[in-house]
Amino acid sequence: STWRKCDFETDTCKALHKLNLQSGWIRRSGRSGMGPPYSDHNGNHSAYFLSLFPETQSSSATLRTSVLLPTDEGVCQITFHYWISQMSGTLTAGIQKHSEDTITNIWQDSGDLQNQWRVKTITINSTEKYEV
């Protein structure tokens, strides 16, 4: 019944740990001159999104949400837009419950159709605090 929107227009979103914007993640717009994508998922060239810096040599990069609290129903949905390019590897979403030390993968896409925006809604069932 309550939801928060994160669009990166003013910052890196309260849902994300600022310290976890690591391993080459940058906030940029399509006008940055860094190559595709040249707009956000709505076709807005001046809108901001997160992107991996092109020269990133790391084999992986992580974004982690702040601690999310369970709802009364124990169900949460997270919807996000993502860009698949010719250089993409695999994008994976996982959940780490606070009672566990491991991250459980709950979704992934390796991008068979490239150079386009996609949208994904993930449903999370948890009765305890967690991070995605």
TrEMBL record:
Pfam family, one: MAM
Cellular component terms (Gene Ontology): membrane
InterPro entries: ConA-like_dom_sf, MAM_dom
Domain MAM, chain residue ranges per copy: 4-132
Domain of life of the source: Eukaryota
Full protein name: MALR1 protein
Species of origin: Heliornis fulica (sungrebe)
